[in-house]
Known about the structure:
By secondary structure, the chain is of the alpha+beta class. It is 48% helix and 6% strand.
Amino acid sequence: MGSFRKGRIFFSFFIVFCGGLFLASTPCRGEDFSRWLEGFRGQAAARGIDPRVLSAALKDVKPRAKVIKRDRHQPEFTFTLNAYLHRLVSRERIRKGRIMYGRYRRTLYRVADRYRVAPEILVALWGIESDYGRLTGRFPVVGALATLAYDLRRRDYFTGELIAALRLVEDGIVPLASLKGSWAGAMGPLQFMPSVFLDYGIDFNGDGRIDPWGNHGDLFASGANYLARSGWRDGLGCVWPVEYHGHGRMLLPDAAESHDLAFWRLCGFVPLDPWSAPRNVTTRIIAPEGEKGPLFAVSPNYDVLLKWNRSHSFALAVSRLAVSVAGHSSP
């Protein structure tokens, strides 16, 4: 969730912006790193971060070339949609998802009852983000975020996330030694960014601490809390593949135009599985790879998944895995 990714158009602009001098493993620098770090210390102190936390967390921090390289080569924008879905929604991941669904069914249903979020969506997010907790990342979060905050591309965003990470340490929520995650600073089985952890983390079992690493109730409740507060609607569904069966050349509707599926049928967009398609849900038509690629009707719940991660590949993978984990036919 936590990388909040941009597309290829922005990436092309970035190359031009850096005057053609960009190397994949080198940050686009505006100043010396030590000078930037000193300025950040002052900014963090002004926002209330304890100097002792700053001293411990920022000791020996240096920019990491591997972080910049990962930022420039994100799989959502380097794989085709079909390749991405094949990689992320494999038979093995579906099999493991069904096992996890059964193993934690009682906790998932308790969370679903409180937050009105389907259990299979929570399991799917867990599976896509970290392969059910297997791949949570080994990058020191402070070092990764410092690198990205120093880089010019998304400096303001990652500066805020770095301060949020330090807040997690200062408040005793996550020990500094345990602050490890992805190259982008996302942490835990659901890959929450530090600010999301602070804003949406839930102590579901009431033991006085938020622990999505070791407590599945906290894990599922934190994810469900994010979705619910972002506008998730229970029972609405997410994605329905469609094909164009109209007369003449297909004209793609504006991606923001919303209608029920009866209207889209009149326009020639027919669901591949009419039995699973909703009758009265407002949807919009998307074509992630253009008019020659696959077409989907998506509900407002799909847009909530895009708030989690601004990638159509990600949102479609989560939707497909959720349907498969629940035991229905995969879209």
